[in-house]
Amino acid sequence: MQKILIILAAALSLAAAVLGYLNRSNIALSKSALTTATSEIAAANKKAASMSAELKAKTEKLALVNSDQEKVASENADLMAQVAKSTSAMADVQKQVADRDASLAQMKSDMAAKDAHIADLDSKISSTVKTPSAPSDDLKKQLEEKDMLTTSLQAKIKDQETQLAALKERESQRRSKSMRSGLEGSILAVNTSWNFVVLSLGDRNGVVNNAEMLIKRGSQLIGKVRITSVEPSTSIADIVVNSVSTGLSVQPGDTVIYSGPGNDSSDNKSNL
After folding, report:
1. Helix (H) or strand (E) holding 256
2. Is the pLDDT of residue 135 over 70?
């Protein structure tokens, strides 16, 4: 009986040892799994933080792009308004010139008609006056009409001479106005759709229509622009076709320089 109890005690001790070993193995495995899970969670959290930061940066970048697009759209709208204003002003000036030309042509026609009428009156007077007797009422009326026509004609001739003198003075002032060689400015905005730019130079700087200016970026020649509309402090210019070097494009901030009348396509003549 005692031997059986000893054997049972030994068996129980062995079973306890086996169970302890298995428990330690399970605990070690559990700790390892826990460590692995913790590491994976930390990596996932880090990746999530990185993705969140990247998403925030992309959102901010998108906001900046949208802001730039709105700014460009606003600048384009302002440029189109300036172009429309300049076009309207040019049309008004051309209409004034056409009206003046029509008025001068009408004056010349009236003068020719009155000259013919005066010549006819002179002929009638010459044929009527045969003796030194007192002139008839009809002759007096004809003489008075001749004097009135002569006075009116002289007044219109004087008015025409005054207008011609004013036109000559304006033409002289226009011709005397020329751009200073070496005048330098910058490009404020570029409209690639309509192929024009806005310059930081205007009438106050001596800019005139049809003048050509060189575009430079540092020491590199980019191309040319031709002035089409002049405002007090700014001007609009077309980019000269085929003047821009291959692989380059005109950009805001580029420098424009007037190197002299030799570069002008029309000798700096501005439209009236």
Report:
1. strand 255-257
2. no
